[in-house]
Amino acid sequence: MTMTHEISSEALRNRLRESGLRPTRQREELAGLLFASGDRHVTAEALHREAMLAGTQVSLATVYNTLHQFTQAGLLREVVVDSGRAYFDTNTSRHHHFFNTHTHELADIHGDAISVGSLPDAPEGTRVEDVEVVVRVSPSRV
Question: Which of 95, 96, 99, 127 could anchor a disulfide with 111, C-beta 3.0 to 4.6 Å?
């Protein structure tokens, strides 16, 4: 694999190993696309298109599986904006999102920019782990 990304192949392999994942060729190539240019939000379909354009022969099912494996390993966060649309975020820090309902773009909101005043009690036997807010926006009508 020719790596033209800012992150080296060895750094990718180490990152995968440190997360408990075996660094297979496909994982390395998808990780290279995901982590090459800083924080980003990507759908499985968009990453699949990028992979195909980069010459990586990988099925859409493998892309989905890999994204979910990366999420479980803590390398990504999954952001579900509605029942049919999920994004994978390379920024795993605590933060929120704007979702543009017109362009379908996701943008970060710093974690401290939103304050939640109160939450209901969690169901018995559970605890509130985190609160993630998705603010839906659309073009303003002038």
Answer: 95
Q: Are 41 and 87 in contact (CB under 8 A)?
A: yes
Q: What is the DSSP letter of 112?
A: G
- Comparing CA positions, the residue from 30, 31, 35, 24 lying closest to residue 48 is 30
pTM score, whole prediction: 0.86
Instruction: Please state, in angstroms and rounded to a whole number, the distance separating the CA atoms of residues 101 and 117.
Output: 26
* Residue that terminates a domain, selected from 56, 75, 94: 75
Distance CA 82, CA 16 (A): 29
Residue corresponding to tokens 């543009």:
100
Yes or no: say if 136 and 106 are a contact pair by the CB < 8 Å rule.
no
User: Is 80 domain-assigned?
Assistant: no
What are the pLDDT digits (tens) for 6-52? 578 888 899 999 999 999 999 999 999 999 888 999 999 999 999 99
Residue range(s) defining the domain that contains residue 93: 85-137
